[in-house]
Design goal:
Layout (H helix, E strand, L loop, with lengths): L2 E3 L5 H7 L4 E3 H4 L7 E6 L5 H12 L6 E6 L11 H7 E2 L1 H4 L4 E6 L15 H14 E7 L1 H11 L4 E15 L13 E11 L2 H5 L4 E7 L3 E7 L4 E4 L9 H11 L25 H17 L27
Parallel strand pairs: 1-2, 1-4, 3-4, 3-6, 4-5, 6-7, 7-12
Antiparallel strand pairs: 8-9, 8-10, 10-11, 11-12
Helix pairs in contact: 1-3
């Protein structure tokens, strides 16, 4: 089955050229089936690139998925054409009464700011609070994962002396986890960030479970024990050229940047990148959709509001609440 997208979404032509099966709204209306309702809060400035990367991973599944794209209303970036946002994106005010089987919250290039300095922090907190009763399972990526761990569990982030940048080998700490079903004992994934969460802080929260780490990049995958929230600190959805583009962008801006590790042949930026993460990235997104969304979500999504998780710390008296 395909992923269901708006007829004219730019990602459609890219995915179809790769022989990835997508379904337009028109065709989907003629199928008698309840698709999975998936919401993507896209916080990245290059929205079309991020849409395409995520849709590529989500589309390789026998499930039909109805996708909605969400942007923040409190901050609108300048890198995506307004007509694209008006055509394909909605805002929280318009969907806050809906319920969803799954949700993805992307990263954002704001990691060097304190959370409360981010322009849309209050809106993001409102969305994350709403997700408790309106989303069955939420997958958070990179800065989105750091923000969610901080908001839901008071887990802090820390600045790094040097950017974690490159493709790193990871250990699976719990091979029996359905999220890593089909994975090898070790796997590769890209990282690109200036901040981290610490393993000991995650393990200090009984409601959280550490699933994977990378010796050179730290924490990679964490989930809540009730399987309602997942936190991924790398970018298994990245395209082959993404790290190269980031590297050259920073060089052009005069920003000190190291050559991404384990990425170019012989670490030579004049050579072609070696893709080592594609299959693991595909498995991770497919496993999340299958085992933690499709197989456990209620058929009637209004039931979600009756299953409010209580595994979080009390934030009432927290100075960061």
């Amino acid at each position: 089955m395909p992923i269901r997208i708006p007829d004219s979404l730019p990602a459609r032509s890219t995915l179809e050229s790769e022989n990835i099966f997508v379904m337009t709204e028109y065709r989907a209306l003629h199928q008698d089936i309840r698709p999975l309702n998936l919401l993507i809060l896209n916080l990245m400035p290059t929205k079309i690139v991020t849409e395409t990367q995520l849709l590529r991973k989500l589309s390789n599944t026998p499930l039909q998925i109805h996708l909605e794209l969400l942007q923040t209303a409190s901050y609108v970036g300048h890198y995506t054409d307004v007509s694209h946002l008006d055509s394909f994106y909605t805002t929280f005010e318009k969907i806050k009464h809906n319920s969803y089987d799954g949700m993805i919250i992307t990263g954002a290039p704001v990691e060097n700011l304190d959370f409360h300095q981010v322009d849309y922090w209050e809106e993001l907190c409102e969305i994350m609070e709403w997700s408790k009763t309106h989303v069955h399972s939420t997958l958070h990526i990179c800065w989105g994962a750091q923000a969610a761990l901080y908001y839901h569990y008071n887990v802090p982030k820390y600045s790094l002396s040097e950017k974690v940048f490159g493709v790193f080998e990871h250990d699976v700490l719990k091979p029996s986890s359905p999220l890593f079903r089909g994975f090898d004992d070790t796997f590769f994934a890209p990282h690109s960030r200036y901040t981290e969460v610490k393993e000991e802080d995650v393990q200090a929260v009984p409601a959280l479970e550490l699933l994977s780490i990378a010796p050179g990049a730290g924490v990679f995958a964490v989930k809540s024990r009730d399987n309602r929230r997942f936190f991924i600190f790398g970018h298994p959805e990245y395209d082959p050229e993404t790290l190269a583009l980031e590297y050259r962008r920073d060089l052009d801006k005069g920003i000190p940047i190291q050559v991404p590790k384990n990425y170019f042949q012989n670490d030579d930026p004049q050579t072609k990148p070696i893709v080592r993460w594609r299959s693991a990235g595909q498995l991770l997104y497919s496993n999340w959709l299958n085992y933690y969304v499709y197989q456990t979500t209620p058929y009637d999504l209004t039931e979600l509001s009756k299953d409010h998780s209580t595994d979080e710390p009390d934030r009432t008296n927290s100075p960061d609440a």
